[in-house]
Design brief:
Elements lengths: L1 E5 L4 H14 L3 E4 L8 H8 L8 E4 L2 H8 L4 E4 L5 E2 L10 E4 L8 H6 L2 E4 L11 H16 L9
Parallel strand pairs: 1-2, 1-6, 2-3, 4-6, 4-7, 5-7
Helix pairs in contact: 1-2, 1-5
């Protein structure tokens, strides 16, 4: 399983997603261009002491990401999705894709996803922060597939 961010535009959210991936033992892929300068040094700084550069894979664009994904299923989290998160059956090799904070994903990316899910919200609420959504989605996917990190012995 891996977490993928499509053209993130808020560096603090990328940093939080890198820490999420590191803490859950899941690599993070970044589909560029980002809305801010991104370098290996910036990734290390954003991830603080949680992320190692080996846990992050950068893709120059959507086409490169698609090629690298191969036959893995891309599950897009979107407010325009039809399936609620908890009704969806995740697989251990799924790619969980999250869009830009400001714009989500373009129709090309939305249409290319193998599945689209949404996180149910209280009536009248529009959306969650992208990293909060990633944490909810990744937690459910890891729980369903039995890949949630095990408790360390005391």
């Amino acid at each position: 399983m891996l977490l993928a961010l499509f053209q993130p535009d808020i560096p603090q959210n990328l940093g939080a997603a890198l820490r999420l991936g590191a803490c859950m033992g899941v690599p993070v892929h970044v589909v560029e261009p980002c809305g801010f300068p991104l370098s290996d040094k910036a990734i290390r700084r954003a991830a603080m002491d949680y992320g190692e550069p080996a846990d992050v894979v950068r893709h120059a664009g959507w086409a490169d990401f698609r090629a690298a994904a191969g036959s893995r299923r891309i599950v897009l989290f979107s407010t325009r999705a039809a399936s609620p998160l908890h009704d969806f059956a995740f697989r251990s090799n799924d790619i969980l894709l999250f869009g830009r904070e400001s714009l989500g994903v373009p129709d090309e990316v939305h249409d290319a996803a193998d599945a689209r899910v949404f996180i149910p919200l209280a009536p009248g609420r529009r959306s969650l922060n992208v990293t909060v959504s990633a944490a909810i989605g990744l937690s459910e996917a890891l729980r369903q597939t039995g890949r949630f990190p095990a408790l360390a012995p005391k």
